[in-house]
């Protein structure tokens, strides 16, 4: 299934599951987070899409809003998650326009392949600053609003940090930090009524989820390497993941069906990392 204008009708979820809710999504113009946003909006939420590039944030907001008549989706560009002031400004703007924040996805990330010899200290710091510090800054910015709404926080990590993967020292370190931060904040925020979880996507293709799919994520094409063609048949569930797989897990974690779930890292990878496979 694709997260399109028929998602609310055809998915397993109630069409108005998130009516009246507001989502705040960093990295929301990117392939995976945009589809997470689409699912929330299709099921009734309004949203703020936060990004560095204002044109991309605006275009993503328009595309997401088109899924449901009456949806309000703001594109907030020129935001750098490495600056807590920048992301605080975005959170305040979102609340001034949308009234509140119930759901947060801290999804902004940057990555590239580099072996240790070609990974400068500044390159390592860049990825840590976007992925890990950026996720922390996002929580700093939205915390007062989430406390008020007793909302939910969702991090996006990966599975590469569970094994050792060449060329990904920087991203693995950042994603391991995100897993740890998610666990810690779940414990600290539980008594405040805020649930905190993390999704760890495996190898995610496009909506079709096979290696020939032209909509395969840019990240996958760029980071997947030469083995990408054989990968689907080696994954236990025999296919690449889809952006819809991540969106469905997101819907579950934000829904009342997960009201007793916090501090979980939900791996959505078709069983890939348990099988010892790695991209
Ligand atoms: C080695 C590199 C490099 C590369 C950048 N650097 N790309 N080093 N190999 N391919 C180094 C630069 O030389 C510089 O170090 C330092 O990193 C900072 O680079 P800048 O370009 O100045 O930084 P910035 O503009 O902040 O760029 C951020 C970036 C960039 C992450 C480095 O690659 C980027 O924005 N990428 C696009 C976003 C992206 O990839 N999104 C998809 C993420 S998917 P020096 O020493 O020269 O100053 C994802 C999923 C991960 O994250 C899960 C696992 C698969």
Descriptive account of the structure:
- This protein is an alpha/beta fold and 279 residues long.
- It has one domain (7-275): NAD(P)-binding Rossmann-like Domain (Rossmann fold, 3-Layer(aba) Sandwich).
- It is built from 9 helices and 7 strands, in the order H-E-H-E-H-E-H-E-H-E-H-E-H-H-H-E.
- Strands 3-2-1-4-5-6-7 form a 7-stranded parallel sheet, sandwiched between helices.
- Helix 2 (31-42) runs parallel beside helix 3, helix 2 packs across helix 9 (243-254) and helix 4 (84-98) packs parallel to helix 5 (121-149).
- The protein is globular, with a radius of gyration of 18 Å.
- The protein binds hexanoyl-coenzyme A.
- Hexanoyl-coenzyme A binds next to helix 5 and helix 7.
Give me some keywords for this one.
about 280 residues, seven-stranded parallel sheet, Rossmann fold, oxidoreductase, about 40% helix, alpha/beta, binds hexanoyl-coenzyme A, NADP, globular
Summarize the structure.
With 279 residues, the chain is α/β, with parallel strands linked by helices. Helix content is 41%, strand content 12%.
């Amino acid at each position: 299934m694709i997260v399109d204008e028929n998602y609310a009708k055809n998915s397993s979820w109630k069409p108005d599951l998130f009516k009246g809710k507001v989502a705040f999504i960093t990295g929301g113009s990117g392939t995976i987070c945009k589809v997470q946003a689409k699912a929330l909006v299709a099921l009734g939420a309004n949203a703020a899409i936060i990004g560095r590039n204002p044109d991309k944030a605006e275009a993503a907001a328009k595309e997401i809003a088109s899924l449901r008549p009456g949806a309000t989706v703001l594109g907030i560009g020129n935001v750098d998650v490495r600056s807590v002031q920048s992301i605080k400004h975005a959170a305040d703007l979102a609340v001034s326009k949308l009234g509140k924040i119930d759901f947060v996805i801290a999804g902004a990330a940057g990555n590239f392949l580099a072996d240790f010899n070609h990974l400068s200290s500044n390159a390592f710091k860049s990825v840590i600053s976007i992925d890990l510090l950026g996720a922390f800054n996002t929580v700093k910015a939205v915390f007062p609003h989430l406390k008020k709404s007793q909302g939910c926080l969702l991090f996006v990590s990966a599975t590469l940090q569970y094994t050792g993967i060449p060329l990904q020292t920087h991203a693995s370190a950042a994603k391991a930090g995100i897993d740890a931060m998610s666990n810690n904040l779940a414990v600290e925020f539980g008594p405040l009524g805020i649930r905190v979880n993390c999704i760890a996507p495996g190898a995610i293709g496009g909506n079709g989820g096979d290696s020939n799919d032209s909509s395969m994520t840019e990240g996958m094409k760029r980071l997947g390497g030469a083995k990408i063609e054989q990968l689907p048949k080696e994954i236990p569930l025999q296919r690449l993941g889809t952006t819809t797989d991540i969106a469905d897990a997101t819907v579950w974690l934000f829904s009342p069906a997960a009201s007793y779930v916090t501090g979980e890292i939900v791996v959505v990878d078709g069983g890939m990392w348990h099988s010892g496979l790695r991209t």
